[in-house]
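One record is set out below.
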Amino acid sequence: MDLFVYGTLRARDLMTAVAGSGQWVAIPASLPDFAVHTVADNVVPFISREQGAGANGIIWQDVTEAQCARLDLYEGAFGYTLEDVTVLTASGPRTAKCYMPPPDIAADPSPWSLADWEADHLAPALLAATELFSHDPLPSQAQLRSMWPMIEARAWSKHRAKAGPATTRYQAQPADFPILKARPPHGQFFRFQNVDVSHRTFASGQSVPHEREGFIGIDAAIVLPYDAARDRVLFVEQARLGPRLRHDPNPWMLEPVAGIVDAREAPEQAALRECREEAALDVKVLEPAGSFYVSPGASTDYFYTYVGLCDLPQTDPYLGGLPDEGEDLRLHPMSFDDAMTLADSGEIATGPALYLLYWVLRHKARLQTLV
């Protein structure tokens, strides 16, 4: 099969990650009377009919049946279907297949550029495709559609990972900690993966291979709202599965505002968004308070923490959250001293909450000069 592509699958690396390995002979081509637009609120393109226009792209030659099945999953999960088209090439018209978008896609007015997309989005797109096709068996199109936001969030979490300072700890090299074998991940919302690994030892040798299981989580933004003028903080109360599975008699926890950093979203954007969604708060100043792994022995979870300077005039608890996301939240404004009392008693029993309270205690004098 010859496949005409006009968007992200023009990137050879992504085509390989999605369809599988191949020779991938490309022929420049254009589809008459179609134009390429950006999908509204997204970064990917689609085509629509536009008399007199021409959608530029390429033909990937000789796509196999197995490769087409992988492409059908990747494109079909979002309503794209294969259709016959006649494209123009340097040697004349040529018949090919093309994934056509569903009719209800809205366009963004900004033009779409493959070079711009590759510069900012190709790397996480490759990570997302790699995770998708590591599943065995592969999900259905319906399953993939529901899984995709978390697949993308995990891909962007990996993409954000940067080397931090190494003045005391070992300065790692790329080959120091290889994953020797990765078995298919499992789990619906989050992922668990069994791997064989080996790592450099402090004696400059290499450890024997170890079989390990890891929790593949996401990046999250954590915010403690703080009214520096009133010396008041706000905590979110909600029922939590972790304590329940541990058989904690009271799985209702007091925590800061928190949420997943979505794909293509900066941690600061996620922090401000969650303050609005969970607590109806407009943060005036967002103070970075550190970023860290939560449980690095077996989890990829990484938290970006902040103190959000805001007004907290209310004193009584109130309800918050987004019901359409299944959130059942109660918000507790309280004095900083009362919060420290709850920390000392053990009623505040979550790591980010305790960490951010102590961070405010250390920086309180400076924070109060910012209001």
